[in-house]
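Sequence, please.
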């Protein structure tokens, strides 16, 4: 719902054409974010220009600022660079609009980020919303004022009341403007008041006293509150007073969550004491009715101002620490469940869950690092693999290093060994072979000391990956086969197909192909793929298809290669693995060349290039695959001509990756 603001929209649309930094500023609840979203939507509809939106309200502090902005830009970096460097290099000469929404609580870090990006990216425009301005040279400030009370404010109030089935009776309509004036035309206050109409008349609202959460007892010096802050707190206070005691308690407890929450999570996290799980369900519905909680599909969200108010009450209730403990415990349990079911049909769902829970997982890790180091080590380990595979390698590396450096306070050797393994994986996938290999040796020493078969397999996996990435397939194969053989019992029976066993079997395929034992690799890959399909697993399955595609290309079976490349892409899209999708598009390009379709090869390769830029790597895979890629490109150029190839490739590289992937799955060509 968007009402009014025609003058502000026109000013912003004009400013976006000539200004590089525009800051929408104004009091909390005045509608800065909504105005920014409206102007971005208009710009996109008018010109189709590229834009990225970063919700900074998810941040507990500034440490994850650059990582969050990178994620908003669709970057999935797999290099050891700092996130800010990644963003600047990826933007480069692009014409791009980035929206930084809700900067005020991380303003100094935002100021540094904005200065760096504007200096290094000449065609970048930044639109920020903040209660405070940056005070930077060239900053164009737009002060967002409240809505005019007799017109736009009244219209917004009545629209929202109608949506909620609480339209004032005719006799009260003449008081709408009076109420809007009383609330200074603040959009958030008006929406909260509209929610309050279900339980109070306009006249009753007008006679309620102004409300403030008193802090005289804790503040040695009371600073006068600006009127509009008081107005918003009044509207929040009305909503709070109209809530049932259980709704108030749920509001306070939900404020510990930074991102979205669904009904089961709300019950798991907030039930306790006077709140049963059924009470949580009823109270959540009540908070939605009162416009305290925003519903988005099956998920719920506290807007940042509403969360701040709830957090104040949570502190006054004396539950802040206990809820922080419960929050961390909930996300640790979530990560344990994800790990336990990783090789099941739930895998792709867990990838999405871990991605969406990113700000809350970071907050949980920060809390655990200060209070429960052992749990921090475990949580960093369990999330580290997901984060490393899906573009948060830098974040994973930071938390794993911090957790391990916090001290060995008696963690089980297996837990610590797995954390070292996860840290080593982040280094290897970022190209730090020496550090990754050193960590593999530490893994091996820890596993031998604990006589842990899974630990031995993980150490072998890490060392073998380092060997493969450096072209030592023979060495990797010997190591993997020795580790897998050690998992057999005295009768020669293989160990159950756990995580570590399946990952080593997968990596063995790469080694077999690397040493030229193609028939053996194909047979093992087909068997492992069949197991993965039966489990509903996608990550390992995608790499079996990758190896089958490589084998088909080496044997010049173009149609078979195409089938496996498409299957790999399907699996990689299921889990959102940008690196794997880029690699899959490269394999698709080589497969099209082998099938005699040069145009499609150029399109696939061009689409892959854009994604390679997003992960920060040049096109890559195992070293022995590079000749296949080069041969495919040369063949495609011969098929369609060098000029036509470059045209198709360039056009695909500038096309929305989603359109390229839809075409790769059998849809219409994106050009």
């Amino acid at each position: 719902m968007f009402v009014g603001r025609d003058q502000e929209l026109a000013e912003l649309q004009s400013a976006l054409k000539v200004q590089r930094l525009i800051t929408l500023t104004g009091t909390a609840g005045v509608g800065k974010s909504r105005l920014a979203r409206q102007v971005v939507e208009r710009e996109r509809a008018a010109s189709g220009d590229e834009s990225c939106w970063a919700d900074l309200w998810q941040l507990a502090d500034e440490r994850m600022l650059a990582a969050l902005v990178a994620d908003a830009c669709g970057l999935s970096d797999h290099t050891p660079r700092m996130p800010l460097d990644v963003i600047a290099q990826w933007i480069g000469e692009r014409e791009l609009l980035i929206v930084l929404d809700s900067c005020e609580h991380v303003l100094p870090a935002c100021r540094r980020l904005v200065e760096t990006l504007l200096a290094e990216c000449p065609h970048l425009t930044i639109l920020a919303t903040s209660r405070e301005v940056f005070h930077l040279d060239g900053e164009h400030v737009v002060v967002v004022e409240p809505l005019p009370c007799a017109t736009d404010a009244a219209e917004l109030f009545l629209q929202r009341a109608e949506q909620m089935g609480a339209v004032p009776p005719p006799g009260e309509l003449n008081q709408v403007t009076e109420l809007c004036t009383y609330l200074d035309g603040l959009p958030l206050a008006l929406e909260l008041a509209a929610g309050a109409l279900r339980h109070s008349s306009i006249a009753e609202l007008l006679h309620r006293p102004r409300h403030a959460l008193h802090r005289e007892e804790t503040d040695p010096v009371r600073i006068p509150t600006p009127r509009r802050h008081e107005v918003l707190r009044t509207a929040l206070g009305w909503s709070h007073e109209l809530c049932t005691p259980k709704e108030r308690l749920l509001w306070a407890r939900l404020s510990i969550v930074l991102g979205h929450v669904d009904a089961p999570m709300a019950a798991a996290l907030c039930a306790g004491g006077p709140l049963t799980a059924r009470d949580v369900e009823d109270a959540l519905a009540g908070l939605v009715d009162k416009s305290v909680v925003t519903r988005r599909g099956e998920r719920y969200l506290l807007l940042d101002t509403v969360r701040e108010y709830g957090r104040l009450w949570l502190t006054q209730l004396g539950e802040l620490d206990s809820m922080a403990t419960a929050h961390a415990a909930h996300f640790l349990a979530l990560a344990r469940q994800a790990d336990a079911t990783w090789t099941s049909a739930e895998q792709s769902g867990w990838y999405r869950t871990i991605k969406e829970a990113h700000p809350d997982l970071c907050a949980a890790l920060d809390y655990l690092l200060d209070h429960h180091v052992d749990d921090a080590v475990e949580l960093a380990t369990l999330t580290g693999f997901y984060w490393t595979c899906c573009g948060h390698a830098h974040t994973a590396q930071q938390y794993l290093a911090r957790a391990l450096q916090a001290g060995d306070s008696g963690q089980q050797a297996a837990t610590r060994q797995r954390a070292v393994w996860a840290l080593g994986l982040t280094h290897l996938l970022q190209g730090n072979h020496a550090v990754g290999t050193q960590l593999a040796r530490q893994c091996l020493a820890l596993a031998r000391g604990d006589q842990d078969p899974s630990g031995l397999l993980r150490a072998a996996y890490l060392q073998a990956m380092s060997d493969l990435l450096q072209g030592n397939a023979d060495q990797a194969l010997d190591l993997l086969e020795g580790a897998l053989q050690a998992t057999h019992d005295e009768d020669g029976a293989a160990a159950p197909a756990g995580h570590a066993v399946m990952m080593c079997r997968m990596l063995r395929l790469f080694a077999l192909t690397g040493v030229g034992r193609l028939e053996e690799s194909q047979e093992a890959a087909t068997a492992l793929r069949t197991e993965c399909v039966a489990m509903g697993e996608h990550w390992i399955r995608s790499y079996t298809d990758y190896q089958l595609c490589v084998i088909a290309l080496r044997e010049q079976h173009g149609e078979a290669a195409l089938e496996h490349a498409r299957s790999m892409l399907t699996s990689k899209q299921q889990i959102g693995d940008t690196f794997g999708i880029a690699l899959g598009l490269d394999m698709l390009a080589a497969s099209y060349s082998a099938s005699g379709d040069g145009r499609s090869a150029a399109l696939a390769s061009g689409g892959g290039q854009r994604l390679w830029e997003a992960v920060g790597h040049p096109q890559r895979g195992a070293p022995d695959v590079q000749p296949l890629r080069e041969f495919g490109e040369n063949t495609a150029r011969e098929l369609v001509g060098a000029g036509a190839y470059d045209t198709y490739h360039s056009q695909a590289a500038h096309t929305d990756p989603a359109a390229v992937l839809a075409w790769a799955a059998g849809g219409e060509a994106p050009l």
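Residues 212-226 have pLDDT under 50 and may be disordered.
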